[in-house]
């Protein structure tokens, strides 16, 4: 996939997997750290490391964000972000800090070295509102897409819960971009479930996902 130039106020599908298809989430603590990295490294003012940033939450909150999360999905061996760039070179800066920070944590914990992710992250511009809505459904219900009727992995997590309830204390996503186009959460839920079925049946996004080595199969 060719490189693209990221533009402020535009939306992008960002995704990647573990090098050689390896797991990037091996236990629940890795999953929690992954999500903490999504929050902590999303700031214009660099924080150094999450360890160094302990006890400085107020300073982090005062700093502006690099990107705005709309939807996300985390799986044992890959991830999807639907994000809006809100600062100059925000996506590049965030993904560099995020990738470096989480890789250092993972490599230290599991006593390994080298790259954790499969090269540079993949990115695609979301150029229509229709694409934005359908992609939000696919990512929000990514755990269902991969489980294909089986119980989803406990090491998978998406922003679906944030879209079911508007009052979660630990919300990451700006859900109003999507939910504001529907009468209520229930209407979006029906749209998302119908859209996922269509995506799987028509293999929408398949070429894009295959370019990252990601298939619509169970990834336990």
Structure characterization notes:
The chain is α+β, with helices and mostly antiparallel strands and 220 residues long. The protein has a single domain, classed as Alpha-Beta Plaits. The chain contains 9 helices and 5 strands; from the N terminus they run E-H-H-E-E-H-E-H-H-E-H-H-H-H. A 5-stranded antiparallel beta sheet has the order 4-1-3-2-5. The longest helix is centred in the middle third of the chain and has 21 residues.
Structural key phrases:
single chain; 220 residues; alpha+beta; Alpha-Beta Plaits; five-stranded antiparallel β-sheet; 9 helices; disordered C terminus
List the helices and strands and how they pair.
Blueprint lengths: L10 E7 L10 H13 L16 H6 L4 E8 L3 E8 L4 H21 L11 E4 L3 H12 L1 H6 L9 E2 L1 H5 L11 H4 L5 H18 L3 H5 L10
Antiparallel strand pairs: 1-3, 1-4, 2-3, 2-5
Q: What is the helix fraction of residues, given as a range?
A: 40-55%
Assign an overall shape.
globular
Radius of gyration: 17 Å
- Rounded average pLDDT: 84
* Unreliable parts: 55-62, 215-220
Quantity of strands, as a count: 5
What's the N-to-C terminus distance?
A: 27 Å
Largest sheet: 5 strands, antiparallel
| Widest sheet: strand ordering | 4-1-3-2-5
The CATH class label is Alpha Beta
Topology order in helix (H) and strand (E) letters:
EHHEEHEHHEHHHH
Work out the count of structural domains: 1
- In terms of DSSP E residues, the strand content is 5-15%
CATH superfamily: Transposase IS200-like
Number of helices: 9
Query: What is CATH's topology name?
Result: Alpha-Beta Plaits
Under the CATH scheme, which architecture would be assigned?
2-Layer Sandwich
């Amino acid at each position: 996939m060719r490189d693209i130039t990221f533009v402020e106020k535009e939306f992008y599908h960002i995704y990647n997997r573990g090098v050689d298809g390896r797991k990037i989430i091996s236990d629940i603590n890795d999953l929690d750290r992954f999500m903490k990295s999504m929050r902590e490294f999303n700031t214009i003012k660099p924080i150094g490391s999450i360890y160094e940033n302990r006890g400085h939450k107020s300073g982090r909150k005062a700093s502006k964000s690099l990107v705005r999360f709309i939807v996300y999905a985390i799986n044992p061996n890959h991830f999807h972000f639907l994000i809006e760039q809100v600062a100059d070179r925000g996506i590049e800066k965030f993904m560099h800090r995020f990738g470096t920070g989480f890789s250092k944590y993972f490599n230290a914990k599991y006593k390994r070295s080298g790259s954790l992710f499969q090269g540079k992250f993949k990115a695609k511009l979301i150029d229509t509102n229709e694409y934005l809505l359908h992609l939000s459904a696919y990512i929000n219900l990514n755990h269902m897409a991969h489980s294909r009727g089986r119980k989803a992995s406990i090491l998978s997590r998406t922003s679906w819960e944030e879209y079911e309830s508007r009052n979660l204390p630990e919300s990451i996503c700006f859900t109003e971009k999507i939910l504001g186009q529907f009468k209520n959460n229930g209407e979006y839920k029906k749209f998302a479930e119908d859209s996922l079925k269509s995506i799987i049946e028509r293999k929408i996004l398949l070429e894009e996902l295959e370019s990252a080595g990601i298939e619509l199969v169970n990834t336990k």
